[in-house]
Description:
Elements: E1 2-13, E2 23-24, H1 32-43, E3 51-58, E4 61-77, E5 85-89, E6 92-117, H2 123-131, E7 147-160, E8 165-166, E9 170-174, E10 185-195, E11 201-212, E12 217-218, E13 223-227, E14 232-233
Parallel strand pairs: 2-6
Antiparallel strand pairs: 1-6, 1-7, 3-6, 3-9, 4-6, 5-6, 7-13, 8-12, 9-11, 10-11, 13-14
Protein name: CRISPR-associated protein Cas5
Organism: Thermoclostridium stercorarium (strain ATCC 35414 / DSM 8532 / NCIMB 11754)
Keywords: Antiviral defense
Amino acid sequence: MKGIRIEIEQPFASYSVPGSFQLRETFPLPPYSTVIGMVHNACGFKKYVDMDVSVQGNWASVCNDIYTRYEFSPNRQFEKERHQGYFEENGRKYGVVIGVGHVELLADVNLLIHIVPKNQDIVETIYNGLLYPQNFLYLGRTEDIVRINSLETVDIIEEILDYEEILKYNAYIPVSYKVENEIGTIYRLNKKYIINKSQTRYWEERIEALFAPKEKELTIGTKIYKDSKGDLVFLA
């Protein structure tokens, strides 16, 4: 099958963990939904395009930064002595508390991403969309702009390892790959959402994936994919 291979560089990035508020924690790599969202943004897709992705990458360090934090409730009216700001709706003012929050950042991020659309006829469409994006590309927060260092179409083939393979990057490996000695953190990563009749978005597909550290050994007999440049691919 055909896919798109992308090498990406980011000075800083934060791939927010849902539900982390006091400190906005980051995933160690961008979740599948974040990568798929970048592709849709680049290509200008107006409805969901089904695709499998592989996410690998390294970074230099983890640090913290501060940001302006806004807290408000539609049930709390503006009180001058309590709130630093307000928003107005239907003639009523609602209070906003403005303060400082902390966000976790990955520094000097380098990613290796593979994208394989279920419809193989649109491989070139996605390639051209990433080459000439309709919008500026980012992964994580809007300010986490990406630089694409390499972009190409590749062949991806399935293999059964007949020798031990060492990971060159940290990687998300879906648990369906049945990697031996699954020691590490298993994340339940969002992939595909749908919008129901009440216009509420919810996640239809989540993938359980092992975060495998760089230099982990994959044993003989493990089923994996490789691209035509010899790099491992863990499609989900």
